[in-house]
Automatic annotation (TrEMBL):
Transmembrane segments: 12-34, 39-58, 70-86, 98-121, 141-159, 171-194, 200-220, 227-249, 255-274
Sequence similarity: Belongs to the ABC-3 integral membrane protein family.
Membrane topology summary: Multi-pass membrane protein
Gene Ontology CC terms: ATP-binding cassette (ABC) transporter complex
Superkingdom as given in the UniProt entry: Bacteria
Pfam families: ABC-3 (PF00950)
Protein known as: Zinc ABC transporter, inner membrane permease protein ZnuB
Keywords: Membrane, Transmembrane, Transmembrane helix, Transport
Annotated compartments: Cell membrane; Membrane
Gene Ontology terms describing biological process: response to zinc ion; transmembrane transport
Amino acid sequence: MIYMLTHYAFVRYALIAGLITGVVAPLIGSFVVVRRLSVIADALAHVTLSGVAFGILMGTISRTMGLVDPVYYGTLFALVAALFIEKLRNVYRFYSELAIPIILSTGVGLGVVLIGLAHGFNVDLMGILFGNILSVTKADLVRIAVAGAVVIATVFLFYKELVSLSFDEEGARLSGVPAGTINFIFSALIALVISVSMQIVGILLVSALITLPVASALRVAHSFRSLIAYAIIFAEISVILGMTASFYFDLATGGTIVLVAVGILLIVLLAGRVRQLVRA
């Protein structure tokens, strides 16, 4: 692994991109899990897939439109979906949870239609679905780094508001927190995290990287800040071990990273059970 890092630029790009994802995915995932909105990542991921399929379709129709990376179309679709989620929450004020399955269903339906129009699954779409971390170029790395920096800076800037809405939304509203605006920003951050993660683990597995490290961290953390810290540590371990295993055993990198994250969760759960038995 060290030899490959020192001799092959694409391996360095892949590792750096994976490490960035290992920070931003559990960072946002901590808020997602605490707010019990884990399904929102799947909803926006499916909308992102629709955007990517639209971008690929545009590439087959127009050479000019094809110059734009389909990932940017996916990100744009996800940001628009984030806006619609907040609008639907206002429409269904007493049934706000309906907003997410509506967007999820729309994303799935639109994705199926656009994939069909784009003449089915091709190499580009398969890479987006299941991830292709070794295809990360220098331009991709810059895009991932910029998106990651935006996510981290925004969370830092609105940390107090995000925490308030996560633990006591009604109290936050009464204290003057602009819930609608913050909720949209939160959904937009998830969209950006998906755009960062899709090339690493693929759209179908991105929600796993957002939630699994947080699920492990919940068993050992004693505060919200420590939850974020542990989640990031577990995610980085998953990325490093997953990439290493995939290189040596010729496995799919995205799936291997997720399986390592599952393994960490099982170890944490088992360790917690052992501690309970020892104390008993």
